Fold Crossover junction endodeoxyribonuclease RuvC.
Amino acid sequence: MRVMGVDPGLTRCGLSMVEGGAGRKVTALDVDVVRTPADAPLAKRLLAISDQVEHWLDTHRPQVVAIERVFANANANTAMGTAQAGGVIALAAARRGIDVHFHTPSEVKAAVTGNGRADKAQVTEMITRILGLQAKPRPADAADALALAICHLWRAPMLARMAAAEAQAAEQRRKYTARLKAAKA
């Protein structure tokens, strides 16, 4: 499976592409950080991010895009910008029929380090080890984008099983409700 990981942000937006094979084997295919000037108009910044993401989607053709879910932030402007960047990216993927999944920072940290409260240095160290990289990915946005992709790759089988179980439960509920209605009639 080929997964694009995205650490959204207006100033720095981390992009990564990984591919997974059997077991927990992961290969990094590409990683980059899109930068936009803080003094540029919002629309121009979002357009720059969108252009880069669309190029990545067309070039790498991921099967899934994993984006960090925006969480509460003391700075509302930062949270808003992060959400807007994530929305632009989700829209670009949706237009191409690519599945989009959102993961919280603690889910990502737990997946790659085993600790949902790991700091950025621990995440970067584990990403370097998992991918067998010669050097640590810099800046942290690049490492975070790789971590998001790996998190989704490793969690995808469980997510698929959960979705199948939920669909089966919904079908059983529908049949049970139909039987109850038939019995009352």
Notes: Helices lie at 42-60, 76-95, 105-113, 120-131, 140-184.
